[in-house]
Design brief:
Chain lengths: 235, 235
DNA sequence: TCAAATTCGAAATAGTATTTCGAATTTGTA
DNA sequence: TACAAATTCGAAATACTATTTCGAATTTGA
């Protein structure tokens, strides 16, 4: 107990931040290459150049590392998404841009997408909802909630079919695109050899069909209304 | 070295089959409840009532068990699929039936779908392509290859838009539906609390939009009728 | 320069999958 | 029913995991 003031736990924030980065960067690279499950803590420590005992000072478990990386990824995506949509003139164009960005993402960063796929399949279910939601809320408010407004706009200006339930459609379409995207990333080159097309092209076709399905086509106003009645009753 | 004939390895096939079943049934139940990764070999042995040493006589690893269960699941699905499509009169109706069956499946056996999702995310990439393909071929020949023919038919009879590439579209649509289905199964009840709809309903909406996107809207009146006909029949 | 913060080393714990092997039991059949 | 081969049991051993512990050594910022 010296006469000096005792410094609180995180006293060297700059240094701690640097260390944290070293660990996360090493882990991310390993996850990309070997998958979350295929990566051991020993590999992360040796790749990042810190001892296990030190690493556990920063992350209390492997899961915490996964979580941290996921958070950063989602924040990135969100930035890119809101950025890209700025240029698009009207609602349908914005929706198109948003969805096609997911195909670009698959084309450019298949490992990252695969990481998210692994998260969904292995971790999402066991982790507390609140934590998931707090993460999702980093990406939601803009692109997602926004997306259902875009659908509303599209219906109003006649570019989208009038029988769409904006909220339901938004979730359904987003989920289909995200699901397709992540599945393609998981199966990777296996799909290419079997399907004979680059994975991102497959995803682009899915998106095209989905967009066509949302669009208002000629006079199907009648058909549309009819459908929506039937639908609502059956659901 | 008796004078009797030495019996080959699998000499009590009925007994072996019974044992195999005990193990697979126990494992399947555990996988459903705790996930593939959350299930330990120790749990499987104690649940199935055989010793580890015995179990490894039947399956050389946990992966082999996963693999065996996957194979049985796919065979089941295939049977159900071909069965259900028999009733459908024309191509568009068959496609509709096939896709909606995947929503039913999600509604009825979410654990099984989740199992497949985990397989995709964790195992698919690391296992040899040949093995994957030999499995897929159990489900492919009928529903899948068939599916692209259905699209061809649909284009010919005017019910589907003429600018579709049958093979590409088939893979794109199937992948979107499967991807959406498995993602929903992975996220489970989390989606419901957040989205406010039962998961299978979300999937049904994705399917509806995809089907609309494939349909021909060139001749409005016909398109309208065709749509509503299909709808009514499919419900 | 110095006290506190941080890291290192190295060993310990506990939980995995998988293997080994001789003794005990079960199986189908002669 | 008896028997030889097939199968199972038990129990311990191996080799990985993640995670913890703690005292000694080093680094940090004022």
């Amino acid at each position: 107990m010296g006469s000096r003031v005792q410094k609180p736990k995180g006293s060297y924030p700059a240094h701690r931040e640097r260390q944290r980065r070293r660990i996360l960067d090493a882990a991310e690279k390993l996850f990309d290459g070997r998958g979350i499950d295929g990566t051991t803590m020993a590999e992360i420590t040796s790749a990042s150049g810190v001892q296990p005992s030190t690493m556990y000072q920063y992350f209390s478990s492997k899961d915490e590392i996964v979580w941290a990386i996921l958070g950063e990824l989602m924040q990135e995506k969100r930035g890119i998404a809101t950025e890209a949509m700025k240029d698009a003139p009207h609602s349908l164009a914005r929706i198109t841009v948003l969805l096609e960005m997911m195909a670009d993402d698959l084309e450019r960063n298949p490992e990252k997408v695969r990481f998210m796929a692994q998260f969904d399949a292995i971790y999402a279910r066991d982790w507390p909802v609140e934590r998931l939601l707090s993460l999702e809320s980093q990406i939601h408010p803009e692109p997602f909630r926004f997306f259902s407004e875009l659908i509303r706009d599209g219906i109003a200006d006649g570019s989208l079919r009038p029988d769409l339930d904006p909220d339901l459609t938004m979730h359904a379409v987003m989920n289909a695109v995200i699901g397709a995207q992540r599945r393609l990333a998981s199966l990777g080159s296996k799909v290419e050899t079997e399907y004979g097309n680059p994975v991102d092209q497959l995803l682009r076709e899915s998106i095209r069909v989905l967009l066509l399905g949302m669009q208002n086509s000629g006079t199907p106003a009648e058909a549309g209304t009819r459908i929506s009645k039937t639908r609502k009753r059956s659901l």
